[in-house]
Design goal:
Blueprint lengths: L5 E8 L5 E7 L23 H8 L12 E2 L9 E7 L3 H14 L2 E8 L8 H8 L3 E5 L8 H6 L6 E6 L1 H14 L6 E5 L11 E5 L4 E5 L5 H7 L18 E5 L2 E2 L13 E2 L5 E2 L3 E4 L2
Parallel strand pairs: 4-5, 4-7, 5-6, 7-8, 9-15
Antiparallel strand pairs: 1-2, 1-3, 9-10, 11-13, 11-15, 12-14
Protein name: Oxidoreductase
Cofactor: FMN
Keywords: 2Fe-2S, Flavoprotein, FMN, Iron, Iron-sulfur, Metal-binding, Oxidoreductase
Amino acid sequence: MVAAGAHLALPVILANGKAAVRHYSIASNPARRDIYEIAVLHEAQGAGGSGFVHGAYQIGTVIHCDLPKQYFSLRDGSKAALLIAGGIGITAIKPMAQRLKAQGTAFQLHYAASNRQHMAYGDRLRRDLGEQVLCYFSDQGQRLDLETLLTNTARDTDIYVCGPTRMLEQVQSIAARLGFAKDRVHVEAFGVAPKANDRAFRVTLHRSQKTIEVAADQSVLQVLDAANIPAASACGTGQCGTCAVKLLAGAADHRDQVLSEAQKEGMFCPCVSRAADSHITLDL
């Protein structure tokens, strides 16, 4: 049995011909023992990972991958839970709803999608959860009002959010302002969106005695990989901490979801974080 929030790391070939690994939430009911179900949104303008899954993975394909990993877990003993999903982020939230229902924990699921056609698991969720799931479709002028939703949520509720970076940041900001304890808000990004003010910067690699240039639209990890400089990594979205390295000099713009405030003083996640100024030095 796999716990809600688990991931599979699947091998893919990107559009540039390079082998890579992509992480997908296991969306099957945690009570099932016979399948690992994933849902992959085909992003035609992406790097090619989703296209490879859609084109190369067929019935009968044998896939060699690691056992599931857990970066986004339900908290034990929660009195109540608020689940928020944006788009394909429902893949991580759906099994949480099923697990909470099975164990009798009070919860609501709020699911925002662009339209009904892009609503993964819509019929299944409405059938299984009834009035516990509320849906919002932007093409119908419907909007998930996070401010009102969180204002009306008890402060001892655990909040779980998966979706676009902007949604995660809004929930964290509103929750902090309303007085929710930081450890009550659990987030998972299915991608890390660039910011309009992102700019290029330099990274000195202390052990390698090299300096690399990171463009405004690149991550440090991408540049390390392109330069064939060894660096540990796993989730690629700042959730697991596998890639964290020592920050030896310079100020960081931390964008991960895993390092504590104390750890951020001397650590850096190159998969998502950037330099706050023009230069940083890492222990690589």
